[in-house]
Structures are given as structure tokens and as C-alpha cells.
Amino acid sequence: MEKQRCPYCLNLSDQNICPTCGEERGIAEAENTRAHGRAVGNILAGRYQIGKVLHFNGEGITYLAYDNQENIRVEIREYFPGNLCRRQPDGSVLVGDETLLAFKSLMFDFTDMYKAVAESDSSGLQKVREIFLEQGTAYAVCELYDLPTLAQYVRENGALSVMESKRIMLELCSALTPIHRGGLIHGGISPRNILVDEESRIRVTGFSTLSLRTRGSGIDCELYPGFSAPEQYEANRWQGSWTDVYGIGAVAYHMLTGRYLPQGGDRQAGEALPGLRELPGLPGSMASTIEKALCPESEHRIQSIEEFSAGILQSQQGNTSVFSIKANETLILDEQTRVLGKAVRQEPEKTMVLPEKPGASPKKPTRSWSRKKLALAVLLFLLACGGAAVGVSALIGTPIHLPSFSRPQVVTFPEPHYVPSLEGRYVETITSNAEWSDLFQFSIKYVYDDSIPQGIVISQSPDAGVKMINKGYVLLTVSRGPQNVKMPGLVGSNLDFALKTLGEMGIRYELVGSEEYPPGIVGKTSVVEGQTIDKTRDIVQIYVGEEPGESEESESES
Q: What is the rounded CA–CA span in Å between residue 170 and residue 263?
């Protein structure tokens, strides 16, 4: 048996039962099949070798993997919502026409979250090393930590001290701050998604779309009883930074008491937290902050992690928050938090939120008047008072001549819409979005870019936030990927795989038949593996095996 990497420990072995860890290779292969995962040993992005499935849920599959370039173990998260797609024998993902829009929209949310984590400089978040697309879906490569979860840590050590719990709470808040500032939330804060090292330093894992953390969202949800907020059990309720605050409060309660709360959807307002107030050495201000964070009614809950941190650090001498934020800089995610999984949840009014003007006071969407309603109310009032022509001209800045009749006529105006932020998105998710296609006409310009992956929008014109009345043109500049790429190793592979690889990389090629090689197998390429190719100039000859006489028959038929 040729030496292969053990799917459990990733050490090389030529035996079915690994001599290093004692695990059987066949069991991992069966588990990956049961999870509809990729086969053990599959190679992704030309470097990552798939091991066993670590975890799977309604959004995707997490694998143990080996990076053959850097010779380290990594964790790979694959976007694979099982009720929207299915696995093909070659490992690719097939999506039906009826679920294509939902699949692509949710995939953007998946990559959007991992991109935000990758761009964060927070040491408290699991590091994201790479995000890429392959065989019809998206992958995120993350650091692999050999650390216990907070759930294991509390189970083995018992309830933590007030000081240790306080330090972990503040580290958790600090880790999530850049995610919240980017308009996203974690949605899965629980001891299972927090790793703890020997110095009680944490790493937050378990990133996902909000759809996975919402019951009734359209995919099989994954919630954490006792830690998920009540609003996550109903698809029609608003979620935001206050949702993560609930999770942080539940984690704090668990660390301090060793107990679990009832499921969020079963808790009642004003319900006491057993054992919290009785803890020796727990400041009253900290207990009050945790109680407010765990309020079942989101509108009465602490709204931001800054407010939670300030409450935890508050003493009788005053507020000693570690965050120095001015009053007009406080994060308000009430109307700014992006609701992920928008195509599945079908709540278009909640998916696109315009930037607030500096200093503007946030309002709950359900309690505010839209501009259209306000303008119509003022207009009807002016009509009733007989001053319509002057009043309407003053309101909209252009004269309107109204006919003279006894009954007032309702004058309607086109509903304005705003150019969304499209930079950093995959162009396919933009052009396939039915709502945007109704509002805008997209013109696409492709350019080569060494730093931006293929298919990603580099820039847009006009900019995000520009108001349009009618259907207008939006120019998107989209990356073709790098102009110069390394020739992949294709010798020995079948023709279908070779052509797919070249197509995905944008490499031009010519096929040359030869009886020297097995039929359908690539025997030689005119450019050797690893050599640089200029995609604008070079054409690669692919020598592929043919059956004897096949070339003569083709020539005679022509």
C-alpha cells in the first residue's frame, strides 16, 4: 500500500490502521460519505489534502486537512447547504435551477463573513488564512488550534472565579468588536465555539451566516440551547448586536455558576437567574449587567458589546470602560446590521440598509415614517388647504401644474432607490439578483488583477449610496485574476479534469491527439508544471491519448 496521510492525525502511513494514532482509515472514509463530504485524500486548490470530517451542519462541512505547501495541519470549512445542493461523484457541488438564487446569495453571505474575519486584526478570532472557490462552492481555510473549548474547560475545572470570568468576557467583547463594526454578527456565541489556552486566552470559532443561526430561515438551523437568543428561534424577528450580547451574557452566567439557562425561546421577562446574585465576590454592577444582557425581550436588552463591557467594568467609583468611545460614536447596529441569508428569508426591506448620516438618531424601522408616506401626508394636507401648487413646488424643487377640479387628485412620484455597495462581491451573485436586476442595468468591465480573486468586483460607478429615480446604469470593474499564473500539473490526469482546471484558471489551450498515451489521459503539456504563463499571450498544447486510428477516422469524416 502506497503511503498516504492518515485522515485523523495526517501523518504518512502505508497501513489501513495508522501506527501513530491507531485509527482506521476506512472509518473516516465512511464518516465523510455519511456527511456528504468530500472523499478522504481529495486535493483542494492544488495544496490542501482532505482528512476526516470534524463537523457538519445545515450550512456546510468542516474538515481536518493538510497544507502540502506549508506542511501544517489546517481546518477547512466548505459551504454546502444540503437542502440547496448535492454532491457529485467527482466532489463538485450541483445546484438545481429552483435553488440557485438562494444558494448563490447565501454563499456570498458565507464568504462575506469569512472575509470580515480574515481582514480583522483581532487576536481573539480564529485566523482565516484563505478563501477560494472551487467546483461550484466556496471554501475557507482556517488555523487549527489544539485547544479545549470553554465548555470542556468549565466541565473539567468547575465554575470559574470572578476575575477569570471577567477577563474572558472582556476578551470576547474585544474579539467581536471588529465584526460588529463591519455590520455583521456572529450569531453562535456559546462555550462550544470558544477555545481557551493555558493562560485563559481565547479564540472565537464557529463563524457562519445568520441563516444557520435562525430557525425557519430555509436551511437546517444550528442553535445552542441556553445560549442562543430568543429572537433566533423565530425567522421574523430582528437580530443584531444585541443577539451576540445575549450569547455573551449566557456564557458569562455559565462560567460563573457552571449552570445552563433554559432555551432562549422558553425564558420569560423578569425571570431570575438562579445562583447568580448569591455568588461571593461578584459585584452588583456585574450581576446587573449580566441580567440585562439576558433579557428575553431584545428591545429591553443591552444593545451593544461596548455597553456590556462598560457595565462589567463599572465600579462604585464610576464607569471604567476599556473602550473610549464618544457619545456620537457609539455603535448602533439597530439599522446597520446586515441580515444574512436574505434570499432565503425573503425580507427585502431588511436586506439593504443605507449608511446613517453622522449624528443621526437611530430609530426602530417599525416605528418610523418613510419619506414616501411623509411626503404624501404633507401633499394631501396642502391640497386640502388650497395651496398645492406652491407647496408641492417648494417640496420637490420643480413646478407642478395641477388641473382644476373639485376633488383632490393624488399625485404619485417614482420611489427612489439607492446604489448598493457592490465592491468585494462576486459578480455572479450581483447579476443573478432579481431585485437588483429590476432596479439597475449592469455593465461589466474585466481587468487583470494580481491581488483580487477572479470574479470579484474591484470598483463600481456610481458609488454606493447614490440615489436613482429610474433604472440606471452601474459600471462594475471585475477581476479576471492574475495575468500571469503558474502552469498546473496535469500530466497523468483525465482530459475532463485538465480542461476544467485550465478553464477555471483562464488558460488558453489547444488539444493534440496522440496514440502514445492511454485514451483520454493527458500525456504531455507544452508548458511544464510550475512555469509562468501569460494568459493574454500564451497558448498551451495539451497532448491527450487517443484510440488507435481515431485521428485518421476524424480526418476522413471531415
A: 24
C-alpha cell belonging to residue 524 = 504531455
| For residues 330-343, average pLDDT | 32
Q: Say if residue 255 is in the same domain as residue 330.
A: yes
Q: What is the pLDDT of residues 425-473, one digit of tens each?
A: 888 889 888 888 888 888 888 888 887 878 889 999 888 888 776 677 7
Q: Which ranges of 44-161 does DSSP label H, i.e. alpha helix?
A: 100-119, 150-157
User: Bridge-partner residues for 442, per DSSP?
Assistant: 474
CA distance 437 to 182: 26
Which among 472, 474, 491 is positioned nearest to 425, based on CA atoms?
A: 474
In this structure, are 36 and 105 located in the same domain?
yes
Q: Which three cell numbers stand for residue 529?
A: 508544471
* 510 in the same domain as 452: no
Inside any domain, residue 120: yes
Integer Cα distance of 517 and 523 in angstroms: 6
Q: Do the domain assignments include residue 400?
A: no
What phi and psi values does residue 423 have, to the nearest 5 degrees?
A: -65, 135
Confidence band, pLDDT 50/70/90 cuts, at residue 160: very high
Please report, in angstroms and rounded to a whole number, the separation of the first and last CA atoms in the chain.
47
Query: Looking at residue 425, which CATH number applies to its domain?
Result: 3.30.10.20
CB-based contact 332:359 (threshold 8 Å): no
* 428 sits in which H/E element: helix 427-431
Local structure of residue 153 (DSSP, 8 states): H
The sign of the CA dihedral 489, 495, 497, 498 is: positive
Question: Mean pLDDT in the chain?
Answer: 80
pLDDT at position 167 = 92
Between the alpha carbon of residue 43 and those of residues 7, 47, 334, the distances in Å are: 13, 6, 43
**Beta pairing class for 202-204 and 417-418:** unpaired
Alpha helices in 6-143 (DSSP H): 25-34, 100-119
| Residue-wise pLDDT tens digits, 171-201 | 999 999 999 988 899 999 999 999 999 888 9
How many angstroms separate the CA atoms of 423 and 384, rounded? 47
In the chain, how long is the greatest CA-to-CA distance?
Answer: 96
Question: Inter-axis angle of helices 162-181 and 241-257, to 10 degrees?
Answer: 170
CB atoms within 10 A of CB 368: 11
Query: What burial class does residue 304 get, using C-beta atoms within 10 Å of its C-beta: 0-12 exposed, 13-18 middle, 19+ buried?
Result: buried
pLDDT at 324 over 80: no
Q: Bridge-partner residues for 472, per DSSP? A: 440
**Domain span including residue 212:** 150-350
- Nearest CA among 187, 192, 163 for reference residue 59: 187
Three-class DSSP category at 216? coil
Mark whether 464 and 491 lie in a shared domain: no
For residue 391, with 0-12 CB atoms within 10 Å meaning exposed, 13-18 middle and 19 or more buried, which class applies?
middle
Alpha carbon 542 to chain centroid, angstroms = 38
Mean pLDDT, range 242-252, rounded to an integer: 96
Please provide residue 365's backbone torsions phi and psi, each rounded to the nearest 5 degrees.
Answer: -60, -35
